């Protein structure tokens, strides 16, 4: 039976520490038979949304049309009045868009946005600012740590991660914090508790 040696944490730069801790985490994961760190085929990749927001484009057209008390015929007439070519979008085509059978072209997206006074971002993504940092979790699995939800997400990730991985990540983060802030350990627990309570209060206000 081959005995695996857990690599010793190297001394030196933060990058060296990161490499050492990553090696330790890998060794511990192998010993425990943990293969969960390997991402299976088809798993969402960083930088991609979890779903296809354009799938609900037709529903957003319908919801905003009804919110303005417009029939499909009314909306068709309105798009025609906004079109320099006087073509607009026919009622039949609008019906196909709302049912999700077809999707509008860039010209038609512009006409729909002008007629419904919504932004292309909202029509396609369902969000006027889909790339705001508070939405990063949809693409990168995280949130800005300036947001209360960001702290909640980080706590959830650490609680859900393999114990050895979570401990390795925490050791690295503590080492990095100590390297940039010599007073990091002074009253750290009290400040951590207060920060968590403040973030919890902010999170409650958002609910």
What does this entry look like structurally?
About 60% of the residues lie in helices and about 0% in strands. The longest helix has 19 residues. With about 210 residues, it is an all-alpha fold. Among the domains are: about 70 residues, no CATH class; about 70 residues, 434 Repressor (Amino-terminal Domain), CATH 1.10.260.
How would you concisely characterize the structure shown here?
The protein has 207 residues and is mostly helical. Helices cover 58% and strands 0% of the residues. Among the domains are: 14-36 and 162-206, no CATH class; 53-125, Orthogonal Bundle (434 Repressor (Amino-terminal Domain)).
Any chance you could write out the topology, listing elements then pairs?
Layout: H1 14-31, H2 57-67, H3 72-82, H4 91-99, H5 106-116, H6 120-125, H7 137-140, H8 148-160, H9 163-180, H10 188-206
Helix pairs in contact: 1-9, 2-4, 3-4, 3-5, 8-10
């Amino acid at each position: 039976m081959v005995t695996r040696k857990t690599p010793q944490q190297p001394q030196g730069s933060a990058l060296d520490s990161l490499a050492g801790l990553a090696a330790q985490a890998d060794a511990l994961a192998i010993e425990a038979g943990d293969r969960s760190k390997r991402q299976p085929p088809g798993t969402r990749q960083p930088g991609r949304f979890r779903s296809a927001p354009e799938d609900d484009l037709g529903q957003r057209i319908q919801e905003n049309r009804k919110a303005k008390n417009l029939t499909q015929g009314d909306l068709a007439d309105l798009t025609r009045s906004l079109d320099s070519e006087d073509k607009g979008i026919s009622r039949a085509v609008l019906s196909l868009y709302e049912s999700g059978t077809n999707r509008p072209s860039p010209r038609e997206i512009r006409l729909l946005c002008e007629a419904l006074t919504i932004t292309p971002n909202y029509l396609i993504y369902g969000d006027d600012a889909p790339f705001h940092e508070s939405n990063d979790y949809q693409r990168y699995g995280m949130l800005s740590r300036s947001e209360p939800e960001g702290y909640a997400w980080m706590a959830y990730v650490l609680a859900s991660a393999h114990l050895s991985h979570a401990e390795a990540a925490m050791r690295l983060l503590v080492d990095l914090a100590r390297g940039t802030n010599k007073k990091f350990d002074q009253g750290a627990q009290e400040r951590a508790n207060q920060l968590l309570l403040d973030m919890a209060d902010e999170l409650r206000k958002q609910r």
